[in-house]
Amino acid sequence: MVWDKKYECMEKEELEKVQLNRLKETVRLAYERIPFYRKALCDNGLSPDDITSLDRLLDLPLTTKEDLRQYYPYGMLAVQLSEIVEIHASSGTTGTPTVVAYTRGDIDLWSEVMARTIACTGATSEDIVQNAYGYGLFTGGLGFHYGALRLGATVVPMSSGGTKRQIRLMRDFGSTVLTCTPSYALYMAEIAADMGIDPSKSTLRIGIFGAEPWTHGMRVQIEKVWGLIACDIYGLSEIIGPGVAVECPAKDGLHLWADHFLPEIIDPETGERVSEGQDGELVLTTLTKRAMPLIRYRTGDITNITFEPCKGCGRTAPRISKIKGRTDDMLIIRGVNVFPSQIESVLMEIAEVEPYYQLLVSRARGLDELEVCVEVKERFFSDQIGRLEVLREKIQTEIESVLGLTAKVRLVEPKTIQRSEGKAKRVIDKRAL
Ligand code: DLL
Questions:
Q1: Are residues 339 and 383 in contact, defined by beta-carbon separation less than 8 angstroms?
Q2: Which stretches of the chain score pLDDT less than 70?
Q3: In the chain, % of residues over pLDDT 70
Q4: How many domains are contained in the chain?
C-alpha cells in the first residue's frame, strides 16, 4: 500500500518545487532562531533571501556532529524549551551525547513518515507489529511505536531483550511483523531453535530491520531462517530517528522521503557533490522539522542515490543503496581501505560458517593487522582438524582475492561470539584501547 501517494509518487519537477519552498522556510527558521546558523550564513555572506533555487544549497555550509556536540544540550533548538515535548539522545559512547528534541508537530511528522515507512514494506493496519527495538533515549523503539499506531496496526511494545519471552509472546500473540536490528533478528532465531521452536514456522511475514549495516548475504540468512521478507530501514537520531528511508518488497534500494529530507551525496574528502549512482557520504537537510532543523548535515554514511522510479512499486521517491558503512568505521589496514560490510559479504558466501563474526584490529611492530573471527557451523566444527585448516585457508584466500587484503582468519566454535540485542559490535580496534 502507498501511504501518501501524492508525495511518494510525485514527479521530480513537482517534488523540487515542494523542496525549494520548504528549504526556504527551513533556512529562514534556522537563520532567525539558531545563532550557529545565523553566524554560518553571515560568514558566507548569505541571507535566507538568497535561497532562490535548490542549487543555492551548495553555497550553504555543512553541519557536523561536532557542531551539535558543541551546542550541547539545547543550543541548536529553534524553539523555546516549553514547546519541546520529547527528547532523545545518541548513546554518546564516542563523546558527548547528541541531543535531539521534538515539538508536538515534529512528533506528528515522525509518526507520519514512520507510518509511510512501515506501509512501504507491505505492512497494513491488519498487522501485529512486535517492536523489539529498544524503547528509551534510542529513537528506534518509540519511532516504530508512533508509526505503527498511525498506520492503525496493533503494536506489541516489547523493546529489546528478554529474548525467550519475545519468542513465547510472538507465538501467543501471532505477531506478523518483527521490527529490530538485523543482528537481534538472527539471535532471536537462534534462541527460538534452542527452545525447540522452528522460527521458519512462525506467523511472521515481514521484518523491518536496520539501525546498523547489514549485507544482502545477511538478509538471505535471516529471510531463510524466519521465513519472512526482510526490508532494510535507515535513519538517524539527528535527522528524526528511523523513518528517513526504507526498502519496498522489491528490495532494490531504500526509498528516501525527499519531501521531508533533502538528500545529497558528497565526496567525504573534498566535500564536492558526486554524480548520481556514485558512492559518497549522504548529507541531509531537514525540510519540515521545527525544533531542530538541520542544514546539510553530514551523516557519515556511505551510499549512492538514484532518481529512477522504482520498477517494483512505482514510487518516484529517490532510492539510496544499502549503507556500506560509516566514514569513521572504515578500516585502513596496511593502506587498504575496507568496510566491515565488505568482509561480511565474503563470509556470507561461505556455506560452512555461521553469520556471526568479529573483526579484531591490532598493531604489531608498527603494522596494522586484521584478524577475522568467524563461527563455524556445528557439523563442520566437529570435523577433523585438517578439514578446518582447509576451510580457514579458503576464507583467507577469498578475502584476499575479493578485497586485496591479507587478514588472519580464526575459526571459532559455534555460539562463542557475543550476541547482540541492539546494534552489534563487529569491530574491536585494539589500536584505540
Ligand atoms: O539507528 C535510528 C534507527 C532506528 C534506524 C531503528 C533504523 C531503525 P542512531 O542510533 O542515531 O539512529 O544511529 C544512526 O546508524 O548514521 C548509520 O550509521 C546507522 N544506521 C541506521 N540505519 C542503518 C541501516 C538509528 N539501515 C546511525 N544500515 C546511522 C546501515 C544504519 N546503517
A1: no
A2: 92-94, 383, 432-433
A3: 99
A4: 1
